[in-house]
Amino acid sequence: MMVMNFAFIEGKYNGSTFTILGRNPVFEKVREMAVIGGSGLVRFARGYVEASTHSWDFKTGDATVQYDAYVLHY
């Protein structure tokens, strides 16, 4: 189970956030998680995020993960 907040730090959406929640089976190539809400200009956000791991250092546990977000808001 993974919960993560994404925050905008520039431009029109500066200060707004959206939250994802879902299962994150890290050994799968692409994982999909739901956008469950937002704040600021993306209040009531809905959508999904696709996560894919580009590199993973098994010794340190460090990983580089790409998150592609598809978000609708009102």
TrEMBL record:
- Subunit-level organization: Homodimer.
What PANTHER family does its record include?
Answer: NUCLEOPORIN-RELATED
Question: Subcellular localization, per the record?
Answer: Secreted, Extracellular space, Apoplast
Q: Which family does the UniProt entry place this protein in? A: Belongs to the plant dirigent protein family.
Listed GO CC annotations: apoplast
The protein, known as: Dirigent protein
Function field: Dirigent proteins impart stereoselectivity on the phenoxy radical-coupling reaction, yielding optically active lignans from two molecules of coniferyl alcohol in the biosynthesis of lignans, flavonolignans, and alkaloids and thus plays a central role in plant secondary metabolism.
